[in-house]
Amino acid sequence: NTWVANNKGPILENNEFDGEKYDARLELGKWTEPGYDASAWKNAELMDAPKGKLIAQLSPSLKVMEEIRPLSVKAAGDGRYIIDMGQNMVGLLQVRLNGKKDKPVTMRFAEVLKSNGTELYMDNLRGALVTDIYTPANDGSFTWEPLFVYHGFRFAEISGLDYEPTVADFTGKVVYDEMTTIGSFETSNDMIN
Partner of 52 at 20 to 30 A CA spacing, among 92, 168, 178, 190? Predict the structure, then answer.
């Protein structure tokens, strides 16, 4: 109970289906370094130890195993841009963008586009929001990626910018079990490949 805790940090929400909301205006400074003033934080509460038997996870942990660049970024109207990662993937999108103070940048994710090519097809997601939102604390450049969520996607829609981003502004971080790849599969069908 000499430990302290704070529940007023920049990660406002995170959920594996709905995404992560991050508000950079609430960043806590160098809280992981010695000498940080945590006097405004609350003392942790002592809890009973959980019941049951603690056992190790049988499979390797999930980890970023590959990084890929998008194939394209295209304007989709209404200040939206569609990013095509070139493959369906499970992972997260790291962004390096220029933002405006207090103006949220919104990223939504989907595996396919609607037939018009400018909208994400979301019907198969059964109501999941699959949306990450980053709110800048200042005008200027920022680099961000979610810490507690990942998405299944090929396409991402980004809005909240006042300029057209490029493929160099995005990195797809592909996540899977930390295991060595020992084989591959290829067919005569390019779509399957």
Answer: 178
